[in-house]
Amino acid sequence: MRDRFVYRLTLTIVVAIALGFALGLIASLFLKVSFFVAFALLSISSAIMALTIALALPSLLEPLQRLTIALKRGEEPSGLLLLELGTLGEAIAEACKTWHETVSQLKEERALLQTILRRMDEAIIVAQENGTVILANPAAQKFFQLPNDYAQRRLTELDLPFGLMELTQNALRYKLPQMGEVQIIHPEEKFLDAYATPLLINGQLEGVLVVARDLTKLKRLERIRKDFVANVSHELRTPIATLRSLAEALLIGGKDDPEIRENFLQAIADETERISRLLNNLLELARIEAGQREWHFQNVDVAEITGQIVDRFSLAASQKGLKIKAEIPEELKVRTDPDALMQVLFNLVDNAVKYTHQGEVIIRGERFTYTGGDWVVISVTDTGIGIPPEHLPRIFERFYRVEKARSRQSGGFGLGLSIAKHIIESIGGKITVQSQVGKGSTFSIWLPSSKLD
Q: What is the three-class DSSP state of 274?
């Protein structure tokens, strides 16, 4: 440091003498002053100025060197260091403040963006122009089962649906937004509402944004709605056609034969009753779904309720050679709507007796601790024909029947289980089913074990 200071001081004095010589020569020519006098005066003043600068230079260089070292290390300059730099330090302090504010704002915006992406149900994927993925939100990772190292992979390596890839490639090729519905067949049927748009900056293609929304539930509901309309039409068309045929038969002469007339009138009464039951079931289902049915909660003795059910079905069961019984602890009670519980149990036991040709039907009850709290579980188990596994996911849908012909012969509409499910869910419980073909089924009613009055 000292050698460099001596070198700079010597160089400064030489420059000052040279400057004094030049200025002295100019002054002697234009100001009519003796050259030596002018040279001496200017050299002395230049030397003094140079010496002042040289002495001040080390005090400025040292803080600058410390500032450079701090910046290289990524450290913020200390307040004392900035104070030594004077005006330059003030400018650096203001720049650091602006930089901190900018970085803080960028961090907040990034955190907000990440929160939004995490909360979105839509799957979002961002890729570069060459197809390299740079971002995928959790919904996309889950829906498309992306690998952990999806970043920096190409879209073609991620096993995305063909329809989605086609939209993405068209967006990149034509530089125009693309949208459409994508259907996935394997491993299970799903529907997507997909949108792919190119990312342009100053007219230059930089990448592509892909957004996909799961339409599977909506499609399923739409299918259920269509099936509902078709089923209602079919269920009404059959008895109405029967009524029309019977009425025409009576008009063309059947009314004149007492025996035929009696049979036809009984058939008309039966079909009218069938239509009435269908309409009552539909109205009941509509009332429950609309929240218009009132529930009256009270302490219910489960053994008493199930005993009444057993008494009502004992004759029908004995006629088929079946045993029906209830295994309920006497102290088992639950707070619920007794009429609702009776209606659901009646429906479940009725189905169990209808579709069991030999064996038994058992109603069991127990208090059970499971995830989410304590429950009172009432189950109806039979040794009947069972339900094939492919039908179990839809067994509680309205008008859904495993064997439509046999259900119609038994007088059912496929609404009983749907009504039972809506009732139990409306009073705070849930209903589940387990079944094996040829071995039987178990329908379980789960009611929350709340405090009794």
A: helix
C-alpha dist (Å) from residue 169 to 128, 131, 202, 221: 12, 9, 21, 31
Residue 82: the pLDDT is 65
Residue that the structure tokens 């309920």 belong to = 328
> What distance in Å separates the CA atoms of residue 307 and residue 330, rounded to the nearest whole number?
11
Instruction: Report the alpha-carbon distance of residue 443 to residue 395 in Å, rounded.
Output: 11
The helix/strand/coil state of 425 is helix
pLDDT of res. 337: 92
Concatenated DSSP letters of 285-307: HHHHHTT-S----EEEEHHHHHH
Task: Flag residues of the chain having pLDDT under 50.
Answer: 1-2, 35, 57, 405
* 215 DSSP 8-state letter: -
Residues 6+ apart with CB under 8 A from 262: none
Percent of the chain residues topping a pLDDT of 70:
76
The first and second tokens of residue 17, run together, are 């003498």
Question: In this predicted structure, what is the pLDDT of residue 411?
Answer: 55
Buried b (16+ CB within 10 A) or exposed e, 81-104: bbebbeeebeebbeeeeeeeeeee
Question: In this structure, are residues 444 and 379 in contact, taking their beta carbons and an 8 Å threshold?
Answer: yes
CB 262 within 8 A of CB 433: no
DSSP notation for 363-375? EEEEEEEETTEEE
Rounded Cα gap, residues 287 and 422, in angstroms: 10
- Report the chain's terminal Cα–Cα distance, integer Å: 92
Residue type, 359: G
- Who contacts 322 (Cβ-Cβ below 8 Å, separation ≥6)? 353, 356, 358, 359, 360, 361
User: Would you state the pLDDT for residue 2?
Assistant: 47
| Residues contacting 50, CB < 8 A, separation 6+ | 12, 13, 15, 16
Q: Report the SS3 class of residue 265.
A: helix
Give pLDDT tens digits for 291-343: 888 888 999 999 999 999 999 999 999 999 999 999 999 889 999 999 999 99
E runs forming strands in 151-240: 178-184, 190-201, 204-214
The H or E element that residue 378 is part of is strand 373-382
Work out whether strand 190-201 and strand 178-184 pair parallel, antiparallel, or are unpaired: antiparallel
Q: Are strands 204-214 and 190-201 parallel, antiparallel or unpaired?
A: antiparallel
pTM of the predicted model, to two decimals? 0.53
Task: Tell me what pLDDT residue 184 has.
Answer: 85
